[in-house]
């Protein structure tokens, strides 16, 4: 069974991510896996302590169990979202290691469909395992599966509309294919969002390419709306669009070109990840 992974550092942002991931697991039918990555040392006064000792790992697992118990009661969604009362299959685990590296490794597993975690700069400060902030950006730009970033204290999760940002048609086709696992069960409306190129000839070529794809193949196969944004800084325009429309979900792709260069269009994904105040899904795509 495919699973949705939720890394946690027990911060308030972790709570938002957990509750959103639970919602996504319910609507998709996927399992929910909550993991806590820690340094392997417990709260002890011992002068010498073995990393990853049984006491430290037992303590970490106990914290995960408490976190689940306090923040994911069976009644949570039945009280807030009519018709949603079931709880997905739940797996909890702890692991010793570096948070970013451990989460990236988990993203490579065949049954990992999605990672849901807090947006950058919004997690609690932790000297042991500071999960969010730079780690969230590292995971979003390096995972082999889609990564869903949730703002702190976002509120009741709901996706009625998905806004998919694109520059060229081929990456857009790949993104549409990869969001179908959410779009179909949610029956969400889709808006295609494109920041116009300042070069008029180049922009005309992009728009013609899109229209030819629609006319020849019927792409994308379901009704969509097209939002053309004014030329400008792509990240800035997308952030203003997401905030101004109060979008339910902004979807971006990022090219798989190596770790630090894995960005959407040049360098747009990084700034959006850092500043987006709405739910954001980053999808790894091929380099075209």
UniProtKB/TrEMBL annotation:
Transmembrane intervals: none
Lineage top rank: taxon: Bacteria
A family per Pfam: Usp
InterPro entries: Rossmann-like_a/b/a_fold, Universal_stress_UspA, UspA
Start and end residues of each UspA domain: 3-151, 195-284
Family indicated by similarity: Belongs to the universal stress protein A family.
The protein's name: Nucleotide-binding universal stress protein, UspA family
């Amino acid at each position: 069974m495919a699973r949705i992974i939720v890394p946690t550092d027990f911060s308030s942002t972790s709570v938002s991510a957990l509750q959103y991931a639970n919602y996504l697991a319910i609507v998709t039918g996927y399992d929910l896996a909550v993991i806590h990555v820690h340094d392997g040392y417990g709260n002890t006064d011992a002068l010498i302590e073995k990393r990853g000792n049984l006491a430290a790992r037992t303590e970490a697992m106990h914290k995960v169990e408490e976190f689940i118990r306090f923040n994911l009661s069976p009644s949570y969604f039945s009280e807030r979202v009519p018709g949603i009362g079931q709880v997905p299959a739940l797996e909890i685990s702890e692991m010793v290691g570096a948070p970013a590296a451990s989460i990236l490794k988990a993203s490579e597993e065949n049954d990992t469909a999605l990672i849901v975690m807090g947006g950058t700069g919004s997690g609690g400060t932790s000297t042991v395992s500071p999960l969010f902030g730079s780690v969230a950006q590292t995971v979003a730009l390096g995972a082999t599966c889609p990564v869903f970033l949730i703002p702190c204290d976002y509120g009741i999760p709901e996706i009625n509309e998905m806004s998919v940002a694109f520059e060229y048609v081929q990456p857009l086709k790949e993104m549409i294919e990869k969001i179908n696992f959410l779009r179909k069960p949610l029956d969400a409306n889709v808006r295609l969002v494109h920041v116009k190129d300042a070069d008029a000839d180049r922009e005309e070529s992009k728009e013609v390419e899109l229209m030819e794809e629609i006319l020849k193949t019927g792409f994308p196969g379901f009704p969509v709306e097209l939002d053309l944004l004014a030329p400008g800084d792509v990240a800035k325009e997308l952030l203003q669009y997401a905030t101004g429309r109060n979008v339910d979900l902004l979807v971006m792709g990022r090219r798989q070109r190596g770790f630090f260069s894995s960005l959407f269009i040049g360098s747009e994904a990084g700034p959006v990840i850092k500043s987006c105040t709405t739910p954001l899904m980053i999808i790894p795509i091929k380099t075209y």
